[in-house]
Amino acid sequence: MNSPLMQFFKRALNREPVLHPIDRGLAKQWIKRRLVVVFPELRDDPRALEEAYRALSLEPKLGTEEGDAATYFEMTLPL
Predict the structure, then answer these.
(1) Cβ atoms within 10 Å, residue 49
(2) pLDDT (0 to 100) of residue 41
(3) pTM for the complete prediction?
(4) Are 60 and 27 in contact (CB under 8 A)?
(5) What local confidence, expressed as pLDDT, does residue 44 receive?
(6) Which of 48, 54, 66, 72 is the 20 to 30 A CA-CA neighbour of 39?
(7) What is the 3-state secondary structure (H, E, C) of the chain?
(8) What is the DSSP letter of 57?
(9) Closest by CA position to 29, among listed 49, 6, 7
(10) Angle at 48 (CA atoms; ends 45, 50), nearest 5 degrees
């Protein structure tokens, strides 16, 4: 049985959990702090720090399985 209703339920159940905006902001802040530690020249240049963060293309994701961290990061590479 492959009805549209069944497909709707399958898509709804397979969705990734939504990351709370506060958690997303904390994750971004943590990554930026680590970038400043690794690259001290970014400390006084917020524009360059933001560009470095965006160049990493990190996406915070919510851990779903037992033993996963609460939040993990997934790097997306440009095609």
Answers:
(1) 18
(2) 94
(3) 0.60
(4) yes
(5) 92
(6) 72
(7) CCCHHHHHHHHHHCCCCCCCHHHHHHHHHHHHHHHHHHCHHHCCCHHHHHHHHHHHCEEEEECCCCCCCCEEEEECCCC
(8) T
(9) 49
(10) 110
pLDDT single digits (tens) 15-74: 666 677 887 888 889 889 998 999 999 999 999 999 988 888 877 777 766 666 677 777
Domain parsing of the chain, residue ranges:
18-75
* Tokens found for residue 15: 């969705």
Residues in the chain: 79
Tokens of 65: 């399985």
Separation CA 49–CA 65 (nearest Å): 32
Joined tokens for residue 44: 């006084």
- Selected residue with higher pLDDT from 28 and 4: 28
Helix (H, G, I), strand (E, B) or coil at 17: coil
